[in-house]
Amino acid sequence: MGEKKYWKSFVDLKSKTLSKALKQQEFSYETTQDFHLNQLDDISRRRFLALSAATVAIATTSCTNYRDKGSIVPYNKKPENVLPGKPSYYASTCTACSNHCGILIKTREGRPIKVDGNPDHPLSRGKICARGQASILNLYDPEKIKKPLKKEGEKFTEINWELAFSELLTNLNTASNNGKEIAIVTKPIYSPSLAKLMSEFQKKFPTTKIYSYEFLESYAKFNAWNKIYPNSEIPEYDFSSAKIVVSLESNFLANEGNFVKNIRQFSEKRNVDKLKDFNRLYSIEGDLSLTGANADYRIPLNPACHFEFLATVLNEMLTNNFNRIQNKNFPSKDVLFLVMSHNLEQFSNKTGIDKKIIKTLVDDLLNNQGSSIIVAGDSVQEDVHLLAFLVNEILGNTKVYKQKPKPSIPKSSLDDFVQLTKKIQNGQVGAILTLDCNPVFHFPKDFQIKQAIENVPFSCAFSEDINETTWHSKLILPINHNFESWGDFCDGYSFFSTIQPVIEPIFGTYQKEDVLFGLIEGKLSSNAFHKFLMNFWKEEVYPKSNSGVEFEQFWFGVLHDGVFPHEEQENLSFIPSYNFIYDWRPLAKESDWSLVIKKPYFVGDGKFLNNGWLLELPHPITKVTWDNYLAISENDAKSLNLQNGSIVRIEYNGKSFEAPVFIVPGIAKKTLIIEAGFGRKVVNIIGQNVGFNPVNILSKDDLEKGYILHNINISATGKNYKLASTVEHHSLNDTFIKDLHKERHIIQEGTVDEYKKGKLQIKRSKEHISIIPEIKYSGVKWAMVIDLNKCVGCGACVTACNVENNVPVVGKDQVLRDREMQWIRIDTYFSGTTDNPSLNLQPMLCQHCDDAPCENVCPVVATNHSPDGLNQMIYNRCVGTRYCSNNCPYKVRRFNFYDFRNHFANGYFYKDSLKLLNNPEVTVRSRGVMEKCTFCIQRITEVLFRSLANGRELKGTDVKTACQEACPANAIIFGDMHDKNSELYYWRNHKLGYFVLEELNIKPNVTYIAKLRNKKSKEDV
Amino acid sequence: MENSDNRLEKLYAIGALFKDPNKIVSAVKRIVELGYKNWDVHSSYPLHGIPKKMRLKWSPLGYIALILGLTGTTTGLFLTWWTMSVDYPLTIGGKPWFSFPAFVPVLFELTVLFASVGTAIFMLFIIFKFPNNQHPLHDTDYMRKVSVDYYGILIEAKDVKFDVAQVKNLLNEFQPDEIHEITYDEKEVSYRPKVFDVKFISFLIIVGLLTSAVAYLFNNKILYSPPFDFMLNQFRLNPQESSTFFADGFGMRKPVEGTVAKNQEYYPYKNQPEEAGEKLVNPLLATKESLELGKEKFNTFCSPCHGWRGEGDSRLNGQFPNPPSLHSEKVRSWSDGRIYHVIMEGQNIMPSYSSQLTEKERWAIILYIRSLQRALNAKQEDVQ
Amino acid sequence: MSTNFDYTIEPEVVEGQPKLRDINDAIAKPLETKPTWKYFIALGISTTLLLIGAICLGYSFYYGIGLWGNNQPIGWAIPIVNFVFWVGIGHAGTLISAILFLFRQRWRTGISRFAEAMTIFAVITAGLFPLIHTGRPWLAGYLFPLPNQHHLWVNFTSPLIWDVFAVSTYLTVSFVFLYIGLIPDLAMLRDRTQNKIKKLFYSIFSLGWRHSNRHWHHYEMIYLILAGFATPLVLSVHTIVSFDFAVSILPGWHTTIFPPYFVAGAVFSGFAMVQNVLIIIRKVFNLEHIITLDTLEKMNKVMLATGMMVGYSYGMEFFIAWYSGNPLETFVFVNRAIGNYAWAYWIMVSCNVIFTQLFWFKIIRRNIVVMFIIGVLVNVGMWFERFVIVVSTLSRDFLPTSWDYYKPTLVDIGILLGSFGLFFTLVILFIRNLPVVSISEVKAVVKGSQPSHH
């Protein structure tokens, strides 16, 4: 057709030759060739109509105006190393939880748009969790506090910073002058500079006392540890050196300890090419945790029996296998005396647990002394922890212990807080400052923190956004988000890391350190702490580096890398003391119902209850979004005739709360599991009416004992509640649809043993003969491999994808209608019995099939295939027939049924601060448009153009998709399937690799590596 | 037709009406025998056998339909082939560009469409020459009767054999129920509308205005108001876009003072020009492309003040004090590192160009300056 | 030869040998007399329904189709069901007017005009849904191969594009067919009416037809040709509609039996609808002697036959599902019978297969009330057939994790009602303003209307 006559847009029309011609002479030549006035009478009416039609046409087409496309606003003076359109990266440290992973913040034109791990960081090694990924949303949260708020009567009024600061200062002065205590309540402080600042602060205000705590802190574990290893720091575990892992009600793969590190170390030892050091995970739990889901052997066990279980195991070792124990120097008699009463026989009779499994477990432990570990979860009681530590000690597993980051200011005990409230009642406290924490929500009512804060003469809350604590404080100071602040972190042993701001405070706030420093100095200035920090490093840290360079360069380097390792690695040695054995405390007795309060998967200590991405991230096991619930086993639910969502009342020691139940297979008998951190009352619009708060049922002693309550009383209320799960749940007793995923070869798995012996048959459909010529792809062709052995289902990939690709939050009502928009989802398949199911997790995203069925049916070619093998969407061509989605066997296409940004939380995601959040490289889809995973095409093209500019060849390994970059387990591999010596090529042709629904002959391009469970072979048992 | 003075009546035909269809049959036979050409039979539904007896030519519509049908097929074939595999070929579901089986339904539909609609149009507008509401027969009693329950037969005046008396006799032979003389008004039939009557023109103008108004409203207003969404205004900040969020309106922000990005390199010789001069050495060789690069960047960033050849002849004619020439002894004696330092930190009123230029470009510029110096000085030597 | 059809007079086609003049009067009566209160009630009801539909549509156009029940696996639901349903209704019309014409079924003359009109109205109603069911209805233009700013053309391999061509062709051709048939009748009315405006209207649309036998000569030819084209066309249209499903890869959709199965179903439901409406018309405008009871009985026979074809297809689907040994296929069909949408499935079976068996009895075939009820049931059943095919299949596809259940919202229901409103409004307007029965055709078969000896 050559150059086309029709115009691309109304504006464009102006410039088109046709209309130019029309301007000169009103009618185009064809219309006017034989148009002579003197003949007018002869020409017919029809001809004249034609002419007039032409006039009208011209009149209409030429009446277009230029729509306002905004104005171009360049830099007045271009900052160094900022190129418009090119991202730049800043190394910093994440403060979303106390793990302080190293992060790289991606900025565009000086605006942060994405967070990823800092590869140079010794612990996180370039990976962060879902929470860290999503924390960027909190930076732009339009409902953050913008100005200091002063409580007058019942309501808050905005005041300016000078006023707020002077008010704060005077109050503190009066307090200290009257010798009244100034209580600073804060999260554990891992920042040496802040610790320094605090000590300065204490110099200025001598009556200052610091109370630091962590939500759902396992005091039981702490105490147990101090009993067996007095005066030594509680460690964490190095799973890369553990071949046998026994998890006792622990969820170390999801939210206990530095789980990002745990996942990495755990998955490293599940490499199907290194079967030699393939680890084995036993999970003994009442809950069905993500860790349990990944276990090779999972034993559901009522939490009341934890101690008995360990005792039985120990007994089994000492009585039947004593000579196999290498470590002889422990008071074996005393220990034996302890566990004598627990023999395997009666235990298995009582709990119905197969003796074989426990025998295997004991056997494994004994075979791997020094390279096995028993991990007791944070919710477990003290005596169980003790026993766990003891068994580890006996087996010489202390080798597996690694130093846990040590707070720069030691954490306070619960008694301190009891004291605090007492003192406040006696009026010994003059002022209380809460630094970016929410004690009112975190502590059970028993502690009466709320009353305390209200009764204190002056209370000031440093907080990013409103919460229960700010609500009761007299003064609220809005503080910077982590990405707007300076700071540092030290694990207390081996390395420092730095926090640097990547944008000026966007709501004109100050960082809390600035304010504190200002209080010392007597005047508030925004860059104060930056200087303080540098001084601190110059004096304290710089000397540690005996590198020749002067401080500027050193500091520059540290900020550049984000971390500064230094060799003070004290080698760990733990000297056990056994005297605790003699005053053994009685156990929790076998009881009716027990309730386990666990850490939430994504919302942390409840701070992230204002983060839509995290609330909509499906629960790894049940896929429930926007809520927490009481997990209950199917049989128990039947016995109480409860359905999903029927609200029950939990009573314990006269305290009670209500929450809906959700039936989860594999929950132990008579056991209820609930995650804390939900059910906040004072929170921004996102978190309102999200979940239920179980914390208030606890008392101080419970906190110290652990988070498992026995003798609780459960009663149905008859009320119902809608829980929004992204999948339908079917009973495992429904034989009609049971194990379909196995029959359809969606999930293929085997055991290590079968694989070793070559018995494992992976079903691959044979090459089909095609009557049509195949499309030949030359050059780079993209493909992905997902290793189901490594993937633990943490959900980091999902969040990373949301952030990278401007995926909207749809809200609970839409999830209830199954309209969630996540481009990648993690499918959970249950098989086995409802009492003890085995789980399979499978990340599912667009498979970019070569013969994509979605493409054939799109009437407007809005989806088609790119020369590099991508199944691509043309958003602005899509009319939204949804035919493609119907015809997609994986149902990975997502449709904008509404303009979700507008529909959700009355337009929250259209507040203009959130405009800065969206990735400028990715189209923001309107309603009525189909969307799906693009293999991060924006990243591909970026790399492509870079290599074109540098005249290099595009290599598959240069591109990393968002999910791949985020995956802590390195389970996702992306690259060029034609690149013979790439990692992708190797795995794509691995004998454990298979395609989902390959028999449809649509040629998907995401290879799944079949999961191997490390079970003992029949003969070994 | 009221005022009879300005009518010029003309006889169109003489027609006979019958109640009994059988009489028509015999009449037709007779008239055919007598060899009349322009005559016709009228009935409100098809009378069977009559066309045959009238010796009418066998209808060509069948062939027309065939031809049009084939046209439709070929059109479809061309459309599918050209759009899918010539104008904008795309890989769809791994199918070849021209996947014929998938196009068959379209071809079929087009065939049917062309054939049926085309034939109908052909019959009505080409064979029958419709619309024709000026025909003399309209509004005659003859027609009215025929359309109910009479059967009419008429012989037109323009027939060569036509003669009023004869025809009347002939028709009377068939014992008709009625005989009609059908006349028409010359003027009325040959009336041709004038183009420039006010009504018509004004009608055109109104149509024109209305269409323009509607089109304008639609193209520029309605299309860009909800719910219509073409994803033109993206809810994101593109480079160099203004932002309503920030007070200063800048969408692009400056990095915070004192932070260090990954792509940032450390410049150790801050305000130590001499050290820089000693320590720094030019990593680039004076290759053609590096000189090209240097020239380009020099002309962009340096020449406005230093002049095309670096002789300090500013193009900013006096808005700034002209800089000294780059060919002075001083500069010529400077080491590359020294000049590099000036580019990095600036001197006197010259600002730093570190942010505008990458390290490579800086060094390239220095190479170019060197070449300039050499060139100019060579000139001077020639003079002597 | 087409020019001499053998129309021997058949008493039961038009009862009581009316005079030709009477036929004119009888058929022209509704056009000339003032409408009765019955008429206005009927019109009132249908327009109310239409209004409800319009409002629901307006809402979903403005806020997005999130107002409907559709969700992630179930991308298609009630709108598409309606589309298939109404296209199906349309088919009976063409069948009666064209196919029966080719088979020289004289009894069709009484109802053919009406059937044709119904075809067009049904197709208009159906045609709406593909346009409004999209996420961005204002871009429906992209569905046609027109030059546009993307420089992209349509995807001719997509069944939806086949639909666009099939349905639009079907609409055009049926319209031409109807119009050609109307011309002589309009001419008749033109010559008959006294009213100036009406006369103008009739003159314009009758194009100056003069009842000339030189014209009738070609006229009969083209009628034959159009009938000849309409016949394969009507078969193709529902075949292509069935391709929407048959061409996809979903078990339960991807079936070769669909085209014949759909066509049979279409005729089935179409006849039911025509029968229902005719029963009302002949009562209201007392055309009993033209739309005779024998005609209705014949239609019931057709319904019986097609109903059994449909039943056969149901059985066949299960057989093939089992015989193919494809677990996915088997699962889907077992699921239909006992799964989450079993209720819909059994409504469909009982209405379409079981109740129609009553038509074996002559008494029932000739009993107006009973046949009316059965007709209604058949329409319900056929609507649910489409519902089962579309929704139940989508709700249980390959990956169990993407399964979900579909519940229609009020808006969905409103749009469904609206479609009925639109259809009946058009029908009711039609019977007031155009001859419901083809005058010339009826006249041609009245006793003594043709020359007895040649």
The order of strands across the largest sheet of chain A is 5-4-16-15-14-6-7
The pair of chains with the biggest contact is: A-B, 94 and 65 residues
As laid out across the biggest beta sheet of chain B, the strand order is 2-3-1-4
C-alpha termini separation of chain B = 114 Å
Shape field of chain A: globular
Total of DSSP H or I helical runs spanning 4+ residues of chain B: 13
Q: Please state the oligomeric state of the protein chains shown.
A: heterotrimer
Overall pLDDT score of chain A = 87
Overall 3D geometry of chain B? Answer: rod-shaped
Mean pLDDT of chain B: 84
Largest sheet geometry of chain A: 7 strands, mixed
Structural class of chain B: alpha+beta
Biggest β-sheet of chain B: count, sense, barrel?
4 strands, antiparallel
The strand count of chain B comes to: 4
> Strand tally of chain A, please?
39
Overall description:
With 1021 residues, chain A is an alpha/beta fold. In chain A, the strands form twelve sheets. Chain A has a seven-stranded mixed sheet, with helices on both faces. A four-stranded antiparallel sheet of chain B has the order 2-3-1-4, with helices on both faces. Chain B is rod-shaped, with a radius of gyration of 47 Å. Chain C has helices spanning 20-32, 37-63, 78-102, 109-132, 159-192, 196-206, 213-246, 258-284, 293-324, 327-338, 342-354, 362-365, 368-395, 410-433, 439-445. By secondary structure, chain C is an all-alpha fold. Classes of the chains: A alpha/beta (1021), B alpha+beta (384), C mainly alpha (454). Chains A and B meet through helix 4, strand 1, strand 2, helix 22 and helix 30 of A and helix 8 of B.
